[in-house]
Design a protein that fits this description.
The complex is a heterodimer of chains A (314) and B (324). Chain A is mostly helical and 314 residues long. Helix content of chain A is 75%, strand content 0%. In chain A, helix 4 packs antiparallel against helix 5. Chain A is globular. Chain B has 14 helices and 2 strands. A two-stranded antiparallel sheet of chain B has the order 1-2. In chain B, a hairpin with a 3-residue loop joins strand 1 and strand 2. Chain B is globular, with a radius of gyration of 20 Å. Classes of the chains: A mainly alpha (314), B mainly alpha (324). The interface between A and B is large, with 42 and 42 residues.
Chain lengths: 314, 324
């Protein structure tokens, strides 16, 4: 007779998101008991907001990394498109038009990345390293390095209360469904696994990749919208350095950086872990300077666990 | 024609000459010897770090932790000497070894645990910068002995034809020459190229891939440690965000210099000319009064154009190969 229990345990061990989920659960339980303020409404909301901003970008980044690429320019795209939206909104243009213009700019930035990568064959890390600097310079020039705000009252709801978390949930759910149920989604995963095989089977790898980078630019704008709305302003250096938080979230969530394997849910969990850690350091009166150090350890532990999972599978 | 196209450094050298000529014509102050020496002094740390990064990139890897390790090493000099009261030179040695340690950890995770270089060094980037902030609580440390402070200002010379060279520039020059010799004249250097060209083939032909990769990352770490000490001496203070952006500038220099991120191609001469392009570009733009904001834009465009030129040259080379 077979041993169903052990078989199930083995299968559970194979769940990609499991380590992140367990870690998040333990961290939350620990903090709930140790830090009296952790469970407070305001703290939970601020964790949710931070998770949403990083998480929304991480969803797009997951798709990019699934194709075997990377995008270092997301935080610069966020700042650029958010500043466009804020400038238009402050100058009294229709909110809907402002947001659409911002989404257009963000998607165009993504498209430029995608074009450089697919048609001019510049490696993704170099392309986006370059455009990261270019977009950041563009937003600084565009805003004259000035603070733009306060935003019209109509925008506040996007970044307030539980709304950011709701937007993240919606985006994560749609993208997950898209990646698992749509043909295009499966192509995205297949490209990361074996690009030439996908190419040989008659699919335009270029078009798929271009689309993925455009999606990433689009989602960076959505994250920027949430960020700007929650602080009621926009400025040129907003989200500076966030590209690394986003990549860290994706990696902690179990997505393989070499492409082909990963999940959106994992990346959202990764984003949650990072913001819980950050909140924990503040609540436990530890210096927030520890954050980066601990984060480095968590990233390493996550990829090591992933490696271990891969080895046990074989 | 094809031999010219084969020369990887040519494109970046032409770029260097063009940029240099442009700024010489634009402003008199640019080509003045003390301005140029000053620029060289400021960029000597980046040059030292880029020597190591070139080797890592030739093996087909990448190291984005270089800037953070520079920061950590710079901080250690101050913490050990000013706060713990250790001898300044002992502190320097420990700081350099701390850099080596970071590189060794990178190398071990990449070779032994077979993790992706970008992830491992991303973690190290975060951890080393975090440690630098933890150790200093975010502020900078000053109050070094005069002998150490003089290190950043000292000159070597007179050397015939050139005159007095700032000590940091001299150190960088020595390391560049060492790096070039190591890559061109030693078995280790040939191994680095071989591993980058094809890891599998190298392994099959009896090359110790593990040792070569571990060396590349450790050596880079060591150079970052040295770069941190040099920076502490030049700024006469330990700053926790020392070396911020170094990963960006060093990768740009290496890529401009003709190294391929796929590994197996590239050399240190090209990288150093790349560092030079960035140095004079930044300095020249400052002198003609272009605001900082525009400089990021320029650097980004230059980086992308450099790779484009490289792609174009490769395509031309293929075409010529087909014709003859």
């Amino acid at each position: 007779m077979k041993k169903p229990f052990r078989c199930n345990l083995g299968r559970i061990m194979q769940i990609r998101e499991l380590p992140a989920l367990v870690f998040l659960f333990l961290a939350v339980v620990f903090l709930w008991n140790k830090a009296p303020n952790f469970g407070e409404h305001a703290n939970l909301l601020s964790i949710a907001r931070e998770t949403s901003i990083v998480g929304i970008m991480a969803v797009g980044m997951t798709a990019v990394i699934l194709t075997g690429g990377i995008d270092l320019s997301v935080a610069s795209v966020l700042a650029l498109s958010a500043s466009v939206i804020a400038t238009l909104a402050v100058n009294g243009s229709n909110l809907l038009i402002a947001i659409l213009a911002g989404l257009g700019i963000g998607t165009a930035c993504g498209a430029l990345n995608g074009l450089l990568i697919t048609f001019l064959r510049i490696p993704p890390i170099i392309t986006t390293l370059g455009t990261m600097a270019i977009y950041r310079a563009a937003v600084t020039l565009f805003t004259q390095a000035k603070w733009i705000g306060p935003l019209p009252a109509g925008m506040a709801f996007i970044g307030s209360k539980i709304m950011p978390a709701f937007i993240l949930f919606l985006i994560a759910a749609i993208t997950s469904l898209f990646l698992w149920k749509c043909r295009l989604g499966r192509y995205i995963q297949a490209i990361g696994g074996n690009e030439s095989a996908v190419h040989l089977s008659g699919i335009s790898v270029r078009k798929v990749k271009l689309l993925v980078y455009m999606l990433n630019g689009f989602l960076a704008t959505v994250a920027g919208l949430v960020m700007a709305s929650s602080v009621n302003s926009s400025q040129a250096n907003m989200a500076l350095g966030y590209e690394l938080n986003v990549i860290a979230a994706v990696v902690i969530g179990g997505t393989s950086i070499s492409g082909g394997q990963g999940s959106v849910i994992g990346s959202v969990l990764g984003a949650a872990i990072m913001s819980v850690l950050y909140s924990a350091l503040i609540l436990l009166d530890a210096s927030i300077y520890w954050h980066k150090l601990i984060l480095g350890g968590v990233i390493l532990a996550a990829v090591l666990l992933d490696k271990l999972r891969y080895l046990t599978k074989q | 024609m094809s031999s010219i196209l084969r020369s990887k450094e040519l494109a970046v050298f032409i770029l260097f000459v063009v940029v240099f000529a442009f700024f010489t014509m634009q402003t008199e102050r640019f080509a003045a010897p003390d301005n140029l020496f000053n620029v060289a002094r400021q960029y000597s740390e980046l040059a030292v770090v880029s020597v190591g990064l070139t080797m890592v990139i030739i093996t087909g890897g990448i190291d984005i932790s270089v800037g953070s390790v520079v920061g950590l090493s710079s901080v250690l000099v101050g913490v050990l000497s000013s706060i713990l009261g250790l001898n300044i030179w002992v502190s320097c040695v420990i700081a350099v070894f701390a850099g080596l340690g970071c590189g060794l950890i990178n190398g071990l995770f990449i070779t032994k645990a077979k993790l992706q270089p970008i992830v491992v060094t991303l973690a190290m980037m975060s951890a080393a910068r975090g440690l630098a902030y933890v150790l200093t609580r975010g502020s900078s440390i000053s109050g070094f002995p005069d002998a150490f402070a003089a290190l950043g200002q000292k000159t070597i010379g007179p050397i015939p034809w050139i005159g007095y060279i700032p000590l940091p520039v001299f150190i960088a020059l020595v390391l560049v020459i060492l790096g070039v010799l190591l890559l061109r004249r030693t078995a280790l250097g040939r191994g680095i190229y071989a591993v980058g060209a094809s890891e599998e083939a190298s392994r099959l032909s009896g090359i110790n891939v593990f040792r070569i990769k571990l060396f590349a990352y450790s050596f880079t770490g060591l150079l970052c440690g040295l770069g941190g000490v040099m920076m502490a001496a030049r700024l006469v203070s330990s700053v926790p965000d020392a070396g911020a952006n170094f990963e960006f500038e060093a990768i740009t220099a290496v890529v401009m210099g003709g190294s391929s991120l796929r590994g197996g191609e590239g050399n240190i001469t090209g990288t150093i000319i790349g560092v030079g392009v960035m140095a004079i570009l930044r300095n020249g733009l400052n002198l003609i009064g272009v605001p900082d904001i525009w400089q990021g834009l320029f650097l980004g465009v230059v980086l992308i154009l450099a790779v484009l030129a490289d792609n174009l040259r490769n395509a031309l080379r293929e075409k010529l190969k087909l014709q003859f």
